[in-house]
Amino acid sequence: MSRTADLHADVGEVLLTEDDIRAKTAELGRRITADYAGRPLTLVSVLKGSLPFMADLMRQIDLPLRIDLMEVSSYGGTATETSGLVRIIKDLSASISGEDVLLVEDIIDTGLTLNYLVRYLRGKNPASLRICTLLDKPARRLVDIPVDYRGFEIPDQFVVGYGLDYSERYRNLRFVGVLRPEVYSEAG
């Protein structure tokens, strides 16, 4: 963990400002509203990182909505790399059978976790299943993931803020920034 109590000091560069995120979320909300016009939609958020994005996104979608939450883990403790082993910690609360489902993610990195989730959710027989992500990091992709709604493509850097964390911290930053390497290399 950082030597300082100042979360902002641990960020080396701001990649996306609060205004950037707000504008992109509104744009995505308009597209989703148009694409699902006249149909109810179920948003599934993957905790914990995508919660701020889903909360803002759902307020930009002008449709009847239902939300559900899942929690999965593919990282351990303060790790900065996925383990590849996915565990479902919290499953859906209600059936999605026959429903249009939009899986809302904070970031797609290697794609391993999301690939697992897509297969898992398809097994629950939704009418449709699409993916919306705030951040896409294609340089690290190990599996092909068809992303229907993409906020921003970002470089291969370790980012925090707006839900994204390192060791459960930085989620509350209103922007997305690059974490200084010395912060996470100290824990190594």
In short:
With 188 residues, the protein is an alpha/beta fold.
Features:
6-stranded mixed beta sheet; Rossmann fold; 188 residues; 4 helices; 3-stranded antiparallel beta sheet; 22% helix; alpha/beta; globular
Helix fraction bin: 10-25%
In DSSP terms (H or I, runs of 4 or more residues), the helix count works out at: 4
Strand content: 25-35%
Order of helices and strands: EHEHEEEHEEEEH
Through-space gap between termini: 10 Å
Mean pLDDT: 91
Over the alpha carbons, how many angstroms does the gyration radius reach?
16 Å
What's the story with the biggest beta sheet?
6 strands, mixed
CATH class: Alpha Beta
Shape: globular
Which fold name is given in CATH as the topology? Rossmann fold
**CATH architecture field:** 3-Layer(aba) Sandwich
Q: In what order do the strands lie side by side in the largest sheet? A: 4-3-2-5-6-7
Architecture blueprint of SSEs:
Blueprint: E1 11-16, H1 18-35, E2 41-47, H2 51-58, E3 65-73, E4 87-90, E5 100-108, H3 112-122, E6 128-136, E7 149-153, E8 159-160, E9 176-179, H4 181-185
Parallel strand pairs: 2-3, 2-5, 5-6, 6-7
Antiparallel strand pairs: 1-9, 3-4, 8-9
Helix pairs in contact: 1-2
